[in-house]
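call fold(seq) -> tokens
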Amino acid sequence: MQINQHARLSCAPMMDWTDRHCRYLHRQLSGQALLYTEMVTAPALVRGGALHLLDHDAAEHPVALQLGGSDARELAQAAQLGAQAGYDEINLNCGCPSDRVQSGTFGAVLMREPGRVAECVAAMRDAVDVPVTVKCRIGVDEQDPEEVLPEFLSRIVAAGCERVTIHARKAWLKGLSPKENRDIPPLDYDLVHRMKGLFPNLHISINGGVATLDQVEMLLDGGLDGVMVGRAAYHQPTDVLAQADRRIFGKGRDSSAEQAVAAMLPYIDAHLSAGGRLHQITRHMLGLFAGRPGARGWRRTLSEGSTRDGAGPELVEAALCHVTALVPEAKAV
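ret:
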């Protein structure tokens, strides 16, 4: 699998959002985009034995496991577990700014310790045969990104990292919440482009503020190797992913929200038969028809009914009527 090619467009790892059900849905819209898990901490896998956090469906591939941690030996063990579970890539989180992550000495706080990150990357690389990648910020707090980012990248490249995703914002670990850190620090796309000039052999993807496929195409045409989309891919998945295979990867046909819904119905049946609840899946489907007539009825029907006892695929089909009734040519397949 040419994983770097799939990284031309990827869906960002997002806590509480990009679980296995979300990834299965996204895969119905794009067969090519690289998908990421939520961050899984190395201690949870190695010390806690929480191997259920690695569960995923074969249909999700290509799919990457994002790990959080700062102990090289423990990360190497966690990377082994991820590779054994079948993940196509192991990614180290050096970008999350949450208090919980800081207290564990991982996430964006690692931007202050490029030497430690390099040790972790090297240990993970030695432990697995799949690519080991890094997701980082341009800096944190008082750091000067022009100085710290080239140093950070040079360290991880020397350790064997061949692909990095750069969230083009600083992370303010003091004074801003994780939510504010996604919006308030200014984006610096030019800096990321300059890093590509300094590291021409490093596969660099950009993250932060990308909301449309047009933006993805513009950034790729500007010389970057990949683009990672976060919240837009979650809240408007059809807009971001349904045309991606054709426009970004030059292969396959466009998909549709209706096709995705139809593909999800047997998956929902299987999940319910295994003891799951409908809302665990449908909460990720609310944005499928964003911007289309009937989208509000779709969301309302799913939101109000999916937590009720006995709710099943028939609720999804009822919700779909709000959209197809207003757009006759949009038939569920």
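The first strand starts at residue 9 and ends at 11.
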